[in-house]
Model the fold of this input.
Amino acid sequence: MTIARHWPLTVALVLAVVTLGALFSLCLARTGGEFAYAIDDPYIHMAMAKNFARHGVWGVTRHEFTSSSSAIGWTLLVSGIYRFVGIRDLVPLALNILFVVALLWMIHRRFDREPRSFGPTGSLVLLVGVFFLTPLPALVFTGQEHVLHTLLTVVFVTIAGGALATGSAPRSLLVLAAALPTVRCEALFLVLLTCLLFLARGRKAYSIGMGCCAVLPLAIYGAISVAHGWLPLATPIVLKGNLADLGRAGQALSLSPGQSGPAAEALSRLGAVARLLGLTAAMNLLAAPHLLMLILAALIVPIIRVNEDPSGSLHVELGLFVGSTMLHLQFARTGWFYRYEAYLVALGLVVLARPAADAVAAIRQRLARDGPFHPGPAAALALSVLVALPLFARGAQSLVEVPGAARNVFEQHCQMGRFLERFYEGRAVAANDVGAINYIADVRCLDLVGLATREVWPLKRRRSFDRTVVAALARRLGVAVAVVYDRWLLDPPISGVPPGWKRIGQWSIRDRVSAAQETVSWYATVPEEERRLAENLAAFSSRLPRSVLQTGDYLGVTAR
Done:
């Protein structure tokens, strides 16, 4: 690769490093010099990685196995690094930066080898676009597996497109098929579609082998999980995906006649059929304009046909992108700090880059020759601009939100963990956000959401997880205090403060970005803990950042 062809990657990497460095400095400025991730979820993986590295326990706490990570490959990777360098907060951040570099290098290498020259300017535009529009900066500061998932997805589709076009069967694709679902389970959608395409090409054995490679690691983990009394699927998949909505649709179809009025029953069944047949995906697509525009572009490109695709790889990649996106929208989630669908945004940009570049080249040639106007290239270029508009807004918003989100986590979740580390080490606590508190403190945890407590999900499934059941479960587990959002207690299914619990104080943050609620409440779950919790909160009050608003009777208590 000559220097002239290499400069776009250099410029893009320099811009990426400067941007990430600036965001890192802004985050530290918002947190008084102490780093915090933009959301609480990475601390769940970090807590599990810490406990696996130190104690050999795959769990949010060191006391028991919990099936709380849907990204088992990522958690194992972080844990392995912890074994060598110790428990370091910045390990996930450093990994994400490394994977950003690898992703940009891989994209540049892909288009540098194009039969038609992509051009250095086009390469730079694409690299910068992928970095800011995915948006990779926000993903880096979530401290999770999404950058790695994006990298592996783009590599997988690139190899699969070439293999399906040429009729080859590379072993590297089998390795990627095994690795991808361990990073994010949504990768199964992409692997499934690829298996079907190979099957349609007559490569039955290779298709079956790829499917086995993808399923085997998850099957092994599922068996381990079941052996420990958990579900075969990790609890985040069960609790956070669209599976619950589709499950309700299935229940509606199985209603016995006469359980409701004829009209209501007919409407319920009709709605259930529609959801199961794709209405869920369609509604989610309408709620995600950035994905909608990418999908429309992918569907229109074969019609415009700016340039021929003699190998057929472009059409394969477009099909994989559209199919994976629709399956994701049907069975998984979007949003929540840009991360769930980020891999699809990056994949769409990479797949659509070639026809966009072809359109620009075609327009230049016709202008230079002063030839007759042809609507195809102009339409493709206009389509590219329309696709970029919602992505620009999304990318710009993500840059603004990262420092504020880090401040939220530092002021709320990290302070909760430090309080519990100081006063309740080794004791049982109840919480609805269990990441930072278990990464920072060594406690026994009752997770009211159910990610880290085995008993919660079956109770929720039976719709019997109410305030009295929570109180009984807390007593059985010896819970001393609870730190929760009041909304989690007052809204269904709990629907009220558990009997015997008394709120002692509240901490409130300002300018909420990523925290679920502005205010967390501290409850004593038994009367004998009320005075002690008030004294502990009073003793810790001076350690809280000044921007945290404290309220409650403990402010009048003399600290011990």
Q: What stands out?
A: The radius of gyration is 26 Å. DSSP finds 22 helices and six strands in the chain. Residues 375-423 form the longest helix (49 residues). The CA atoms of residues 220 and 232 lie 9 Å apart.
